[in-house]
TrEMBL record:
Domain Helicase C-terminal, chain residue ranges per copy: 478-621
SMART domains: DEXDc (SM00487), HELICc (SM00490)
Lineage, top ranks: Archaea, Methanobacteriati, Methanobacteriota, Stenosarchaea group, Halobacteria
Chain positions covered by the region annotation Disordered: 928-969
Official protein name in the record: Helicase-related protein
CDD domains: DEXDc_RapA, SF2_C_SNF
Listed GO MF terms: ATP binding; catalytic activity, acting on DNA; helicase activity; hydrolase activity
Length: 983
């Protein structure tokens, strides 16, 4: 009968574990207290069947129990791969399909080495904040610290985030919208919907909903977020400046619904990243409340914020402050020039007549307080200066709607809900939503009076005939001449042309450049088509036509000439357009030409804005984002339309805007100097150490060959199949294979067949339709888990030979780690210790010649001596392993103590100020009460506030005290190998 003792590892029906206590029973039996591998405590009577002792590695060494070489290689290689990037290396640099830039690595490196991974990333447009966040997510997943991730973005960017995380980082996210959530509630009505998936992307405007469908008793999205049990390991907010809270006149805090989403997520997340190109919009209270989402105790008031105090909370790099290894700037100059176009007499008459029509109906809409009809006229004015073709199409639509009696004063309910967003933040609508709104607006009129409707129809028809009669669009001719001159000088040159409307894009494509090879990107294209169009522009086409709906996600730094065929009235879009070319990797001065009609209010106003902001950018050393910040509180639509409606002279409008710009310029300078951090990135100086991190990551211990060997060995053992799918011999630079996966691997993430797969990053970057079998691929991760957790891969003991003139010994391989203050086991290192028969312990072992099968063990001279010494040698290895893990944990402990000390100081100051404030109030209330005024209610409220603050203070300080502790974890022996001389 097997005798069991404390410390024995056993397996039983339903699991495995370690005996922590043996309790004798009155009947002579025993009760085992077992700590299972799942982290549970169980009590098992000794009389249960199927309880078996699992021999330890030392037991097996002493018994000369040698495993099959291939099994040992599988386990050892899987262990090494499992820990390959958990310490000071970056998985992202070798396991994705993109070129990651040094400054992006530096940002992620700073965040990953911080205490709690909570940062505001405020890099300028074009630096790749999405990539930086993606690196952090992937690294935390690879290091075993992130099982649940939430990404919150504006609705138009959710699909783009999903595509980028899948294509660039091989991470699959589910988009949560109304339909997805409704389906999940039906499937699991009693489970919090946010707990049903672990990798989620959602829009901030979906998440902010506080009420659900009419008649539904389901918990609203924001309430479900607020009451979520399994917290987020990583949460990301893109365009985080939309999370707005402000200080009211009575000093209280006014939260928008979007900010409430930020609070709900911030309170339920470990790592938190806020991404925004406009971190500070000139409102210090709003910036303070945004920072408070990351660290509520850092500042007691916005007046306390200073750049130095943001150093470990914010990363912000401007293009002008970034330098290469040779000291040159990473980003070239921009050269912006305006190309004014004089209208032909027919165009001038059309412009004047349409503007007069718009002025009349816009003023009528204002009188009738008909907001929708006013928006309709704004759309027409924008399309009028976009192209003759665009306004002609709008006039056609207007005629058709009137003739079909489709006009009316009321918008559909779904459009009504979108109007507030459309009027204030149109960039937060999806393409489909914006099109839906504008199509509905074109059917709106102010009156249902038949005579007035007929009068409008007659007028629109006449305007349409005028537009149709104009065969030549003067602006298009100037564009054609400009592009022609560029291509004559260099037939291989690339020109990117932006326009706001798809109608104008189609006109340029079909009428102006019919003989050119054109790439085109607009809102209705899916991601695959968009990718093909971008490839065509890079490889074949000289011209790309793009709308603003397509500007996000276009990385076109291989081109350097851009034309704004029309200027959007939303200044943020202009910055975003330029950011497509003015980004890392651009080797030439970015040439930007702005086409506009002379002698029109809207064009001259916009041209002035561009000129002024370009000057401010130069003065402040900024390359983007200035216009959006300068015009933060300026409603450009209203300014331009008011000028048109009132027939205000252009000079007067321009003078008013210039005054506003100068005022905002001063505020912007103050913000830059007093509030915002500005990180210099210089590869020739203080940041060059990041190149060492990149070198270690790209040329570290693990290679593409290691992963391929592991997969091939596993497939050999467990009957999988790998065969090439490209004809001819295998390519030396990597090949493409069909993988038929062994049946032992199963799960939602692993397919049974991968028809196109490669182990080579270079091939994966060239072919998007090929699975990249890298370390973080689900197949590799599943395979590693199987090798480490399954009894079907023994492989713990090997017999190896060496030709080195070294004493025989045993190599013990350990996983080292520590337990953090939060109770997490952080495994960071794999260490091999070679202990020889003379008692020497070394971190390096002799060079291995061969691994022998079990059948040869009895014939090896000297092996019996090693087996007899196994326990003693193991004890020596264990002592050294403890020394190393103690040292390792001490480094982490010192860092934790430093970080928590800073956070404790912030928390103590915060609570002290709040408690003093409420104590002063309480004293005032009590004095007034003693003077005869009934102050019982305010006194009671103040006492409750003080009680709450003191409780929160105790809880926060206790949490910080816990978090500073770092406890070495017992070294885990994972494999061992006899090493003997090769004879």
């Amino acid at each position: 009968m097997t005798r069991f003792e404390v410390g024995d590892h056993i397996k039983f029906a339903g699991g495995q574990g370690e005996i922590t206590k043996v309790e004798d029973r009155p009947n002579g039996g025993q009760l085992f207290h077992v700590y299972t591998t799942e982290g549970q405590l169980r009590k098992l009577p000794s009389g249960l069947p199927h309880i078996e002792k699992i021999d330890s590695i030392v037991d097996r060494l002493a018994a000369k129990h040698v495993d099959e070489p291939l099994h040992h290689d599988l386990r050892e290689r899987a262990t090494r791969l499992d820990l390959a990037y958990r310490y000071d290396r970056f998985l992202s640099l070798t396991n994705n399909r993109i070129e990651i830039e040094p400054y992006q690595v530096q940002a992620a490196y700073e965040i990953l080495n911080s205490y709690d991974h909570r940062y505001l990333i405020g890099d300028e447009v074009g630096l790749g904040k999405t990539i930086e966040a993606g690196i952090v997510i992937e690294e935390l997943i690879a290091r075993g610290r992130a099982d649940r991730v939430l990404i919150v973005a504006p609705a138009p960017l959710t699909v783009q985030w999903q595509e980028e995380m899948r294509e660039k980082f091989d991470q699959n996210f589910v988009i949560y919208d109304r339909e997805t959530v409704r389906s999940k509630r039906q499937s699991h009505p009693n489970q919090n919907v946010w707990a049903q998936e672990d990798f989620i992307i959602t829009s901030v405007d979906f998440a902010k909903q506080s009420t659900d469908e009419t008649g539904s008793d389901a918990v609203s999205p924001i309430d479900a977020l607020d009451n979520l049990e399994p917290e987020w390991d990583v949460a990301v907010f893109d365009e985080a400046h939309h999370l707005t809270a402000r200080r009211s006149s009575d000093n209280s805090m006014e939260r928008t619904q979007r900010y409430r989403v930020g609070e709900a997520v911030a309170n339920n997340s470990d790592a938190l990243l806020l991404l925004t190109g406009t971190p500070h919009k000139g409102k210090s209270d709003q910036f303070y409340f945004l920072i408070s989402l990351l660290d509520p105790y850092r500042f007691g008031h916005e007046s306390q914020i200073e750049p130095e105090a943001l150093d470990d909370l914010m990363i912000r790099r401007l293009k002008d402050d970034m330098y290469e290894t040779d000291g040159t700037r990473m980003f070239p100059e921009k050269n912006i020039e305006a190309l004014g176009v004089k209208m032909s007499p027919a165009e001038r008459k059309l412009y004047d007549d349409v503007t007069e029509y718009i002025r009349e109906y816009y003023n009528l809409a204002r009188q009738e307080e008909n907001q929708a009809a006013g928006f309709t006229m704004v759309i027409y004015q924008k399309r009028l200066v976009s192209s003759i073709y665009a306004i002609r199409k709008s006039l056609e639509n207007r005629m058709r709607a009137i003739q079909n009696e489709g006009t009316g004063q009321e918008l559909p309910d779904d459009v009504q809900e979108l109007i507030p967003q459309y009027s204030t933040e149109p960039e937060t609508l999806t393409d489909a939503e914006r099109n839906r709104v504008e199509e509905a607006l074109e059917n709106v009129t102010i009156t249902q009076n038949p005579d007035q409707v007929q009068a409008e129809l007659d007028r629109v028809k006449e305007l349409w005939r005028q537009a149709k009669a104009i065969e030549t669009d003067s602006k298009a001719q100037i564009l054609k001449q400009f592009v022609g001159r560029i291509l004559r000088e260099d037939p291989d040159e690339k020109v990117l042309i932006f326009t706001e409307y798809t109608d104008t894009l189609e006109y340029l494509r079909d009428e102006i450049f019919p003989e050119h090879d054109i790439a085109q990107v607009y809102g209705d294209l899916n991601q695959d088509r968009r990718r093909r169009e971008m490839e065509q522009f890079e490889e074949e086409a000289n011209i790309m036509l793009a709308t603003d709906a397509a500007q996000e996600g276009l990385n076109l730094q291989f081109a350097h000439i851009m034309v704004n065929y029309d200027l959007p009235w939303n200044p943020i879009r202009i910055d975003q357009r330029m950011g497509r070319l003015h980004r890392y990797g651009q080797e030439h001065t970015v040439e930007i030409r702005n086409l506009f009609f002379k002698d029109t209010r809207e064009s001259e106003i916009l041209s002035l804005l561009l000129e002024k902001t370009d000057q401010i950018e130069a003065d402040l050393g900024m390359r983007s984002d200035v216009m959006g910040r300068v015009l933060e509180d300026v409603d450009l639509d209203e300014t331009i339309m008011a000028a048109i409606a009132n027939d205000t002279p252009t000079g007067e409008v321009v003078a008013n805007i210039e005054a506003t710009i100068e005022e905002r310029r001063e505020a912007l300078e103050t913000v830059e100097e007093q509030f915002l951090i500005r990180d210099r990135f210089d590869l020739s100086d203080e940041d060059k150490e990041i190149l060492d991190v990149i070198e270690r990551s790209q040329h570290g211990e693990i290679s593409e060959d290691d992963i391929e060997i592991l997969v091939r060995e596993f497939f050999d053992v467990f009957k999988g199949d790998i065969k090439g799918v490209r004809p001819g011999p295998a390519r030396s630079g990597g090949d493409v294979y069909q993988l038929d996966v062994p049946n032992v691997l199963s799960g939602d993430q692993v397919k049974q067949r991968y028809p196109m797969a490669t182990f080579t990053r270079e091939v994966a970057m060239e072919q998007d339709d090929v699975d990249f079998i890298a370390l973080d691929h689900p197949l590799v991760q599943s395979l590693i888990d199987f090798c480490l957790d399954s009894d079907r891969v023994e492989g713990r003991i090997a017999l190896k030979t060496t030709e080195d003139d070294a004493a025989p010994g045993i190599r013990f391989t350990y996983r080292l780690g520590y337990i953090s203050g939060a109770g997490d086991v952080v495994t960071e290192k794999l260490v091999s210790l070679y202990v020889t028969t003379d008692g020497t312990v070394a971190t390096s072992s002799p060079e291995i010649v061969d691994t022998l099968p079990p059948s040869e063990a009895n014939a090896i001279e000297g092996l019996d001596r090693l087996t007899s010494m196994a326990d003693d040698l193991h004890q020596q290895a264990e002592m050294e392993a403890w020394n190393q893990v103690e040292s390792f944990a001490q480094e982490a402990r010192e860092e934790r103590e430093r970080e928590t000390k800073i956070k404790r100081q912030h928390a103590e100051r915060h609570f002290e100020e709040e408690i003093n404030r409420w104590e002063d109030r309480l004293e005032t209330y009590q004095t007034r009460d003693e003077q005869g005024e009934d102050m019982s209610a305010p006194i009671g409220n103040a006492k409750r506030q003080l009680e709450t603050l003191r409780r929160e203070q105790d809880e926060e300080l206790a949490r910080l005290e816990e978090e500073k502790h770092v406890t070495p974890e017992e070294p885990e022996l994972v494999t061992a190998a006899f090493i003997v001389q090769d004879f």
